[in-house]
Amino acid sequence: VTATSAPARTAEPSGSAARSGLSRLMPRRNPWGHPWFLEGFTWLYLIWSLVPIGIAVLFSFNNGKSQSAWQGFSWRWYFSDPVNSVLHNPQLHAAVIQTVRLSVLTTIIAVPLGVSFALGINRWRGFTSSTFNYVMILSFVIPELIFGVAMFFVFTVLFTSVHLGTLAEVLGLVTWNVSWPAIIVQARLVTLGRQYEEAAADLGANQLSTMRRVLIPLLGPAIFASAVLVFSGVIDDFVIVDLLSSSASNTPMSVIIYSTQHGGNGGPALNALGTIMLVMSLVIAFLGYLGYRWMTRGERGSRIDALTTIAGGD
Amino acid sequence: MATATQQTSTPQADGRKPERQSRLFWVLLALPGILWLTLLFIVPFYAVLAIAMGQLNRLFESPIAVWNPLQWSSSNVINVWHDLFGATSFAGPIVLRTILYVALASLLSLLIAYPAAYFVARFSGRRKALFLILLIAPFWISYMMRMLAWIDLLQTTGYVNKALSSLGLISQPVNWLGGHWYTVVLGLVYGYIPYLILVLYAGLDRIEPSLIEAGRDLGLNRVRTFTRVTLPLSRQAILTGMLITVLPMLGDYFTNQLMSGAASTSMIGNLIEGQLGTPGLEGQGAVLSLLLLLVLLIPMVYYVIATNRSTREAA
Question: Which of A46, A233, B102, B197 is the most buried (most CB within 10 A)?
Answer without folding.
Answer: B197
